[in-house]
Amino acid sequence: MAASGSWVGGNVFCQLFAYFSNSLVSFAILAATLATFERRYAVIDPDKHLQVFTPINTKLLLVGLYMLSVLLCAGPLYGWGEYSSFKGVMQILISVSLDDESLQNSTLSSILCQQRNGTQYSKLKDLSTRAINTLLQEWPLTVRRSEITNCMDGRVILQIRAENTQVADRLLKDISSNYFDDIVFKGYVNESEGLGSGLSVETFVNKDEFQAYRDAYITFQSIGVCSLDFSPTNAYVISSTVYILCTTLIGPLVVMVINSLVILKRIKCPYHSLNGDVTYLKSVNIGGIVTALSCVPYYMINFMNMHSIVINRTINLICTAMFYNAGLCILLGFFIEYVSNVIKRRSRGHSLMEATELQSIGESTGDC
User: Where is the G-protein coupled receptors family 1 profile domain (predicted)?
Assistant: First the structure.
């Protein structure tokens, strides 16, 4: 649950929610893929099916699949991608330059980065820390993402996230009016423990990048759901996204389609499970494929969002809800098929054994 764009449970709970939610969605797709293998064995090689898909083997396979899905979705927890309720960043550039002719023979790097007691000391890092601390105090609805400092050219890049558009607009206005500089750097430039005299500090925000962040990313994060952040903020966003997409969606979907085509080529009528009365061929195939396809809109809007394409908030919400509830597709298919067959059997007056015997006779004669 989120309020004002911020995840109520904090960052740790946000990470856990997104991690296990993605793991469960992946598990549903992988389990549906396993079910198509089970149907394939049942149709093509019934004897081997009874040996492979015993109750204990089936339980072990499902546990193994869940462990696999947990591992496949763990990358963002270790920096390969990111789980977050925020999307994108607002970049604030702080530029330090020489402002005194007496310092023209000096270099920024020699002033800003010095050796103290054998260790590297960076005044620019102190400046960055001061800026972040003051910013979070004066603009409380902002969240620190990271800082990048470069002593060679005297630049600090603050990566900030705003909880909503009002906060972002206010921050941009305060930077444009120099209010930000007055609050953050007042007295710091000339302090002996600060940057020292002879230096000037300016703050910049790229208006085009800000507009893209405001319109695309903040609009997306306003749905208040912790999920993968597909924005270019993350250094490994492309590789991690392609990896998760291929291993938990595209790969299983291709396998399900192939198994379905193989099965449909071998039979001419719906096929009852050899292990029970609930799992039917049509439910497994259609439910599994629909489960995987339900995730496609979520990835599509995220890739569009990655390129700063503005997506309607309602569409974002619907696609995200479809993704997190994708596993219900196959369960719903099972339930409908089960209820339908129970009603049919009762209306015809056949018991389960009689229905199975009739099916066996039909299969032996080639009449479905």
Answer: 1-72
Clarify whether residues 98 and 210 are in a common domain: yes
CB pairs under 8 A, 24+ apart, for 97-100? Answer: 97/154, 97/199, 97/200, 97/202, 98/198, 98/199, 98/200, 99/198, 99/199, 99/200, 100/197, 100/198, 100/199
CA 93 and chain centroid, separation? 28
In which domain, by residue range, is 45 found? 8-78+227-337
Residue 172 placed within a domain: yes
CATH number reported for the structural domain that contains residue 95 in this entry: 3.30.70.1130
Cα–Cα distance, 77 to 106 (Å, whole number): 43
Same domain? For 213 and 238 the reply is no
Distance in angstroms (rounded) separating the CA atoms of residues 43 and 41: 5
* pLDDT score at 110: 67
pLDDT digit string, tens, across residues 168-194 = 898 889 888 888 888 777 656 545 455
Residue whose entry in the numeric block shows the structure tokens 């750097």: 185
Query: Are 5 and 143 a contacting pair, CB within 8 Å?
Result: no
User: Is 357 inside a domain boundary?
Assistant: no
Q: Report the DSSP beta bridge partners of residue 162.
A: 142
Asked if residues 3 and 50 have their Cβ atoms less than 8 Å apart, the reply is no
Q: Say how far apart CA 320 and CA 255 lie, in whole Å.
A: 24
**Domain's final residue, options 221, 256, 278:** 221
pTM greater than 0.85: no
- Confidence bin at 63 (pLDDT 50/70/90): very high
Cβ neighbourhood burial of 125 (10 Å; 0-12, 13-18, 19+): middle
> What is the average pLDDT across 253-279?
65
Over residues 347-352, the mean pLDDT reads 56
The answer to the question of residue 363 being in a domain is: no
Residues 115 and 173 in one domain: yes
Instruction: Give residue 282's identity as a one-letter amino acid code.
Output: K
